[in-house]
Amino acid sequence: MSLEALGWTPQFAAAFEALNDSGLVPARVVREDRGRYRVLNGAGERAAELAGRLRHEARTRLDYPAVGDWVAVRDGGGGSEVIAHLLPRATAFVRKVAGETTEEQIVAANVDTVFVVMGLDDNYNVRRVERYLTAAWESGATPVVVLNKSDLAEDPDASLAEVESVAAGASVVAVSALGPETLAALERWLAPGRTVALLGSSGVGKSTLVNALLGAERLATGAVREADSRGRHTTTHRELVPLPGGALLIDTPGMRELQLWGDESSASAAFPEILELEAGCRFGDCRHDSEPGCAVRAALRAGTLDESRFESWKKLQRELRFLETKTDARARAEETAKWKAIHKSMKHHPKAKRWR
Ligand code: GDP
Ligand code: ZN
Fold first, then answer.
1. How far does the centroid of ligand 1 lie from the alpha carbon of residue 204, in Å?
2. Where exactly does CATH 2.40.50.140 map onto the chain?
3. pTM for the full model?
């Protein structure tokens, strides 16, 4: 497989050239599991681990390579590679780490197109599409809304039109994962070397779609045999899989349970018409409650802005604001801890005594 077939672009090439180290070769991360990596390039797929320097210099989890990342590796001997550098990401899906903390983690890097999947059955919910589109725009990847289970829809065209009206410029297509001929509608985004990922709630048909896209190769692709610490061979799964047509599919557990992440303004990307309306409010900090001269309220009264869409936008903003507050609190706590540590080490440092 050539690097281009794996998604290599001039941007990555430039970043790699700048490292100016003939001992390094580029490779793409196809799997990560608790610090153990699998990387793929023209020479094939190999195990890899992080160079100690990379681990020491990492300030947050965002500095660690993730599935989809391009890295520069050197031969570590014994058939494994050492990841010496992480190349800058073109796009990134970030999520907060599960639990009470709000630390960020990369769930997929360098995704070109994200299929936001929704079922045209009882899962159908326009408000949910808006949430997923927000996450998609935030990542930098181009979202495409995929309305699946068109075979179950009474009037797929009406749903298509409704979703198009909230999709803020994203393409919307209807398919049936059970009818492979309908998947031709996705081909535009499945060109060789292009990276795609799927987003959507459970039950919408993501696995069925993935299997349909993989087609006959579904059993052969993705599985790698790997020796575990006891030398047994276990079968694991690649999380970045080449599709028969040449595109690359990223399917990580993290993508499957993605939560919203971003600052308050990122909600606006999925609601451009509200952003536009806001500009017309008399007060710059208008909350669109009962302020005089509120253009958003006026649009609601006139019926040119849908009440449920406005509510959906407000709800997203509240969630994002809450996350932001939590992140700020964490950043302050970290800063305090850092200074405490510095003061402590100064006190215990023999040289520091001279100053007292
Ligand atoms: P996931 O949780 O998003 O991965 O969803 P699955 O792929 O597991 O699909 C959930 C259920 O929907 C399964 O029973 C599938 O057979 C069914 N399903 C998926 N795609 C379609 C479709 O296009 N039409 C119909 N009728 N059922 C589908
Ligand atoms: Zn207003």
1. 6
2. 4-86
3. 0.74
H helical segments located in 222-271 = 253-256
Would you identify the CATH topology of the domain 4-86? OB fold (Dihydrolipoamide Acetyltransferase, E2P) (2.40.50)
Q: Which of 178, 208, 214 to mutate to test the pocket of ligand 1 (most atoms within 8 A of CB)?
A: 208
Which ligand has its closest atom nearest to the C-alpha of 208? 1
User: 105, 106, 73: which is closest to 91 by C-alpha?
Assistant: 106
Q: Which atom of ligand 1 is nearest to the CA of 148?
A: 23
Q: For Cα atoms 119, 124, 130, give the angle at the middle one, nearest 5 degrees.
A: 100
CATH number of 92-251: 3.40.50.300
Average pLDDT per 10 consecutive residues for the chain, totaling 356 residues: 95 96 97 92 93 91 94 92 96 73 82 94 80 84 94 90 87 93 94 94 86 69 52 66 93 69 57 88 89 95 92 79 56 56 50 36
For residue 221, the CA-to-ligand 1 centroid distance in Å is 21
CATH superfamily of 264-321: Probable gtpase engc; domain 3 (1.10.40.50)
307 by DSSP, 3-state: which? helix
Q: Which ligand is nearest to the CA of 275?
A: 2
Q: Residue 66 in contact with residue 109, Cβ under 8 Å? A: yes
